[in-house]
Amino acid sequence: MEQLASALGTVIVGVLACVAYFYGSNWLLDRVFPANAASAEKGIKNLQIAHAVRPWLFLGPALLTLGLYLVYPALDSVRLSFYNSDSTQFVGLDNYVWLWFDDGFRQSMFNNMLWLIFVPAMSTFFGLVIAALTDRIWWGNIAKSLIFMPMAISFIGASIIWKFVYEYRGEGSAQIGILNAIVEALGGDPQAWITIPFWNNFFLMIILVWIQTGFAMVILSAALRGIPEETIEAATIDGANGVQIFFLIMVPQIWKTIAVVWTTITITVLKVFDIVFAMTNGQWDTQVLANYMYDWMFRGGGDFGRGATIAVIIMLLVVPIMIWNIRSATRDSKGH
Amino acid sequence: MASLKLTDIEKAYGVTKVLKNINLEIEQGEFIVFVGPSGCGKSTLLRMIAGLESITGGDLQIDGQRMNEVPPSKRGIAMVFQTYALYPHMTVYDNMAFGMKIAKASKEEIHERVSKAADILQLTPFLERLPKALSGGQRQRVAIGRAIVRDPKVFLFDEPLSNLDAALRVATRIEIAQLNESMPDTTMIYVTHDQVEAMTLADRIVVLSTRGIIEQCGAPMELYENPKNVFVARFIGSPAMNVYDCKVMETGEKTRVAFEEGGHSFTVNVPSTPDQKGKPAKFGVRPEDLRLCEDGDEPLYKCEVRIVEKLGEVTLLYLEPPHEGEEALIAKIPGTHDFKRGEMVTLTADDEKRHLFNEEEISFRWIGKE
Ligand SMILES: Nc1ncnc2c1ncn2[C@@H]1O[C@H](COP(=O)(O)OP(=O)(O)OP(=O)(O)O)[C@@H](O)[C@H]1O
Ligand SMILES: [Mg+2]
């Protein structure tokens, strides 16, 4: 209750402060540079100045906050990556050299590559197939809502759900994980799934696929609806069967959307952290870059230099994809 | 070899029947045009022939074979869509070659057929372009080319020209007419609501109405000169035929009618039976068949001029209708004339250009026939 009241209070105060700022600064500007000045010439000049200043006045708070919370940390991370563990001594490229030969980093890179290939591919594939199939059945929209729902769950929440799916209890006690229950029902032996090296990576990836399929499906479903029905009918007359129509007529027409979906998921994957953190914390060979960064940054006393170095690497990997993604998105929306 | 036979074809969406009792026989090489008001089911009928729409009743035969359940690609048809329906990600060449590639034809054969079609349609310079780099007319030619490459027995067109501007429409219409001439064995079925396209292209026109039935089917001039009912009479020709309520005064070899009981009466050159005497009927005359009454002519109708439109080669007169509340009578008089508003004119028309329809709006010339 108390929390609620304070949250509400913060919101109200925040909104009022914003209104006060915009209204007040605007009023002040008009005061300092009045349009109805003594001479007409001065009035026009004042008007021009006010005109030039006003956008900055209104943009100011947003730019300041962005700079403080996004630009500054990014730049400072780069700076920190050239310093030692407690940022007291400049060490040049030492951190990067260390990273190059570090086994943990190599494993993270390898796992990240697996994630990069598997998750976007599977999410896009399932999203596309589901979008195409659900368009034709009456309960398609119900199915779509169900598939979209994981999008509303946080990664941590999803991980906890899947923890129960993979749950393993020692011999003798009843298995409460659904996967082991199924395996037992089929006559197999229960396994501690997330501790099986290499394959456990995929068990973790499935969680992200489960979440991202909904996203891919919604975007691709909209794209599929944009395909002119006549092109499909023309292909039918031309003798193409369902599979041929799908791959030769429909998919090429939404190719750009598929690429955008793919890269968007790729970016999410590069930053994947929560799932690994909650499920295995990088044990049993499941380490990924983001979790590895967290490890170095905050665990065991913390090494800001090495942590920042890993952060910079992640940033370098994400930026090109991001640029490409934004470019193609704006190009699409302009309708080329 | 491609004759079509439609027997009692019917189309229902749920409980609403949009087409019923469609019976039609089309001979090989014929050019058939479906016309009718918007929403009457022209496209639906065409798509049923193509196999894109299921047939909910009746029989469709192509060359004597029942086709109801045969998939579109096996019916020997090709279709040209109003929106062109080109594959946007394929070049003009690939668009035209797609069907043959699916059918696993040899590269040489595909090349030969596509080149030939491109040649006929003057598309050779554009073969490597994507559809979006073509003009509307060029796109429609590619769509026609794609159909030609399939070497169909039956060509289906659904308003292929309606997305083109007026000049291009005329040019493409002439191209289609030439195409038809160069492929005398290919049957063509063409949907339009442009009268000029229908009259100029068709061997036979099929007029559909919003009731979902074929109102009349025949050669363009037959429909124009001898319409079966008021609907067809008013649908073919522009401006539409003037049709007014009247009464049968005398019956016999010729029929005498009047707009008013006891008013001026005139003859219509159609036979009628004695039981029709005194019954209400509908008199019709085309605007272009009306002329000013001269000595020796039997006057048809005398009335006041309301609006005059001079178009150069013709003068359109909008005249007072016989009864209050009816549409203005339109007369199309060749040449330029100086009519005044409010002037009284006496009009007449040749005997065989006068039409008479009974209470059910059936032409007297057609009663008892068929
Ligand atoms: N899927 C559908 N469900 C219900 N009714 C439909 C459906 N498709 C078409 N109709 C109806 O069938 C009728 C015929 O449609 P159709 O498209 O064949 O008309 P049309 O003669 O081609 O008209 P236009 O000249 O405007 O193209 C229309 O009244 C339309 O509302
Ligand atoms: Mg139509």
Question: Any descriptors?
Answer:
heterodimer; A: 336 residues; mainly alpha; 14 helices; 0% strand; globular; B: 370 residues; alpha+beta; Rossmann fold; OB fold (Dihydrolipoamide Acetyltransferase, E2P); 2 domains; 6-stranded mixed beta sheet; elongated; binds adenosine-5'-triphosphate; binds magnesium ion; MetI-like (chain A)
How is this structure best described in words?
The complex is a heterodimer of chains A (336) and B (370). The two termini of chain A are 53 Å apart. Chain A has helices at residues 2-32, 40-80, 94-101, 103-134, 140-148, 155-166, 178-185, 199-225, 229-237, 242-253, 255-270, 274-279, 289-298, 304-333. Chain A contains 14 helices and no strands. Chain B has 2 domains: 4-234, P-loop containing nucleotide triphosphate hydrolases (Rossmann fold); 235-357, Nucleic acid-binding proteins (OB fold (Dihydrolipoamide Acetyltransferase, E2P)), CATH 2.40.50. In chain B, the strands form 4 sheets. Chain B has a 6-stranded mixed β-sheet, sandwiched between helices. In chain B, strand 9 and strand 10 (214-218) form a beta hairpin. In chain B, 23% of the residues lie in helices and 31% in strands. Chain A binds chain B through residues 228, 230-231, 233-240, 244, 248-249, 252-253, 255, and chain B through 50-52, 71-74, 77-79, 81, 83-90, 98-99, 102-103, 146, 150. The structure holds adenosine-5'-triphosphate and magnesium ion (MG). Chain B: Its main location: membrane. Chain B: Pfam families: ABC_tran (PF00005), TOBE_2 (PF08402). Chain B: GO terms for molecular function: ABC-type maltose transporter activity; ATP binding; ATP hydrolysis activity.
